[in-house]
Write a structure and sequence with these properties.
This protein is of the alpha/beta class. It is built from 14 helices and 9 strands. Helix 6 links the parallel strand 6 and strand 7.
Length: 406
């Protein structure tokens, strides 16, 4: 299947072999792996340490070359520059400049994507609020805790409003509040048409947010499918009901055993809350009591600029061609042609034009005023004055020699 069929990322019979100094095979990190990530879904890549997850991610980012097989993102090579512009990546360890603060860090990454000054400022403010670091925005990254560094790492992965977000262990180092916000944000991005591809060892988080998963072992794919289908225990039926009296429960158990013909297989328990939910309720109570904290705060909703739903690139191009064709037909029907509408200037061309304009302004500033320029004699006049002076001196010297001789 191609990207136009709804796939954002395709891994096709991928194999990666690492070799030693002598060229001998030392490790086969990925072995004939195949799967696809569909548009607008959250896909989880799971497996124990050394199963090939990180190698697969690095190949998908264009950082490694496959030994055989291929990876396609939006139907192209992951090393294509246009493809990289549409990807956001948060590594397992956020290696950021420790002497920059949160605002400077996000501004730096915004410049790498050539965002305008106004757009950078708007996105930086929105992302800092979203990850709950407004009070720590002026603090150097080197003074952040691991959880706070993870938050700013997520913000830098979203600065370019990516269509595909690749997350390596997104909730590692986060407290339960930050982990909950991270999961809620991922689900929000999915609702807005983004595609999320993540690796994680926290299986409870993966189970909660992923639509489909692939489990690796020894570089091979061992399981692939929707989470609900893979985890369904079809040999049992679960019933959830309001609190029942003991005699009612006993009658229900007897009825089930008589109907199924099985003894001692019916289990009746009282449901419990998840520890995560209980922890979050305790924290929320503390916030209502207006207690302060020196660490990260609650993040806001997803930034407004992330609300754009990604559209298939081919469909957008086809629509532009159709509109251009219609405009051409109208212009040739005997009607007066209107001035052609200027095509939007590409980001690179806009940068070049701005540099040319600034260069011209600098030249004008350096140029001397017109009055001063007029006062300077032309080059030809300067040369004529020098020649006349030399001729006069030569005549004077000749006259002096004649007087001496006489």
């Amino acid at each position: 299947m191609s990207a136009t069929d709804g796939n954002v990322l395709e891994v096709i019979q991928l194999t990666k072999t690492f070799r030693d100094f002598w060229g001998r095979e030392s490790v086969k990190a990925v072995d004939g792996l195949s799967f696809d990530v569909r548009r607008g879904e959250v896909f989880g890549l799971l497996g124990p340490n050394g199963s090939g997850k990180t190698t697969t991610v690095r190949i998908a980012l264009g950082l490694l070359f496959p030994t055989s097989g291929a990876v396609r993102i939006f139907g192209r090579s992951p090393r294509n520059i246009e493809v990289k512009k549409r990807i956001g990546y948060m590594p397992e360890e956020s290696h950021l400049y420790s002497y920059l603060n949160a605002q400077e860090t996000l501004d730096f990454f915004g410049r790498l994507f050539r965002l305008s000054g106004a757009e950078r400022r708007a996105r930086v403010d929105a992302l800092i609020d979203m990850v709950g670091l407004r009070r720590a925005r002026r603090r150097p990254i080197g003074q952040y805790s691991k959880g706070m560094a993870r938050r700013i790492g997520l913000a830098q992965a979203l600065i370019n409003d990516p269509d595909l977000l690749i997350l390596d262990e997104p909730t590692t180092g986060l407290d339960p509040v930050g982990a909950r916000e991270m999961k809620d944000l991922i689900l929000t991005l999915r609702e807005r048409g983004k595609t999320v591809f993540l690796c994680s060892h926290l299986l409870a988080d993966v189970e909660e947010i992923c639509d489909r998963i692939c489990i690796l072992y020894g570089g091979k794919g061992r399981a692939l499918g929707a989470v609900g289908e893979l985890l369904a225990a079809r040999d049992f039926t679960q019933i959830r009901a309001p609190h029942l009296q003991e005699d009612t429960v006993r009658r229900l158990v007897d009825l089930i055993e008589q109907t199924t013909g099985s003894k001692n297989e019916v289990e009746v328990t009282t449901p419990t809350r998840r520890l995560e939910d209980y922890f979050l309720d305790v924290v929320e109570d503390a916030r209502r009591d207006r207690l302060t904290t020196a660490g990260a705060e609650r993040g806001t909703a997803a930034a407004d600029f992330l609300k754009r739903i990604a559209e298939p690139e081919g469909e957008v191009l086809l629509e532009e061609l159709v509109q251009a064709s219609k405009a051409g037909e109208k212009a040739t029907d005997g009607q007066a042609r209107k001035p052609a509408t200027a095509m939007p200037v590409g980001r690179d061309e806009a940068v070049i034009e701005e540099l040319v304009r600034k260069s011209a302004e600098d030249e004008r500033e350096k140029a001397p005023p017109k009055e001063a320029a007029a006062a300077v004699p032309p080059q030809a006049s300067v040369r004529k004055d020098v020649i006349d002076e030399l001729v006069t001196e030569a005549k004077t010297d000749e006259k002096a020699d004649e007087d001496e001789a006489s």
